[in-house]
Structure formats: C-alpha cells, structure tokens
Amino acid sequence: MPDAMQWLVGIDWGSEKHRLCVVDADGNILHQKWVEHSGSALAEMVDWLRQITGDAPERLAVGIEIPRGAIVETLVENRFSVFSINPKQLDRFATVTHRPAPRMTSATPMC
User: Fold this and answer.
1) Is 103 helix (H, G, I), strand (E, B) or coil?
2) CATH architecture of the domain with residue range 7-97
3) Of 55, 14, 59, 10, nearest in space to 30 by CA
4) The model's pTM
5) What backbone phi and psi angles, to 5 degrees, belong to 5?
6) Residue 103 — pLDDT band, cuts 50, 70, 90?
7) Alpha carbon of 48 to those of 25, 36, 62, 107: distances in Å?
8) Residue 107: its pLDDT value, please?
9) Local structure of 36: helix, strand or coil
10) What are the phi and psi torsion angles at 32 (to 5°)?
C-alpha cells in the first residue's frame, strides 16, 4: 500500500500538553505519548512521528479537534496531513448512527 495512509494519529489537544495515539491501518495501537505544548516539545513530536513513518509524513493522517494553532501549524509545515475533527459533529454522528460517542476520562485508556 505505497500510496495509502499507513498510520493514523489521534491528538487530544490541551492548552498545556497533548495526548497522541498512533494506530496502524488495521486499527492496532502502536504508540501512545504525552507532548508538552512548547516549541521544543513540538519539534521532538515531529521527529518522533518522522521516525514512525520512516521520514514519509505523507503516509500518516492526523486527526485533531482544533483547526489552527501551534501544533497544527507545526504538523502542516512538516508535510503531515492534518484533519480537524469537530467534537460536536462527532456527537451528532453518534446520534444519527445510534452509537454513543466515546467519552474520555482520566481512567479511560488513551486509545
């Protein structure tokens, strides 16, 4: 699958730190990580994601709940495909499909 996305990253955005979860195309959890909201930590995050992809950022899709900001700009500048996912739309989708939207708590496993 050379032209397809091979990895998916979900980012739970926070004002001070972010939770990242990397899964493969089959949905298997590969990595989980906390990233501080600082320039150096975001640079380390990019390096970490590049290691996962073998320096092929176009093969990794990122889902995050905000459409802008330092983390989004950093990812886009480094050629990662970023998709903003509105949490309210996810709730509406869950209502239409009759599936409950996942809820995160401190006890919830990261992925």
Assistant:
1) coil
2) 2-Layer Sandwich (3.30)
3) 10
4) 0.76
5) -70, 130
6) low
7) 18, 14, 14, 26
8) 47
9) strand
10) -140, 145
Q: Is 66 exposed, middle or buried, given 0-12, 13-18 or 19+ CB atoms closer than 10 A?
A: middle
Query: Taking Cα atoms as reference points, which of 70, 95, 91, 96 lies closest to residue 11?
Result: 70
8 Å CB contact between 57 and 79: yes
Using the structure block, give the residue that is written with the tokens 């996912």. 85
Task: Break the chain into its structural domains and give their ranges.
Answer: 7-97
Strand locations in 39-111 (E): 60-64, 81-84
Q: Which of 84, 13, 5, 66 is nearest to 42 (CA)?
A: 13
What are the tokens at 90?
Answer: 């996810």
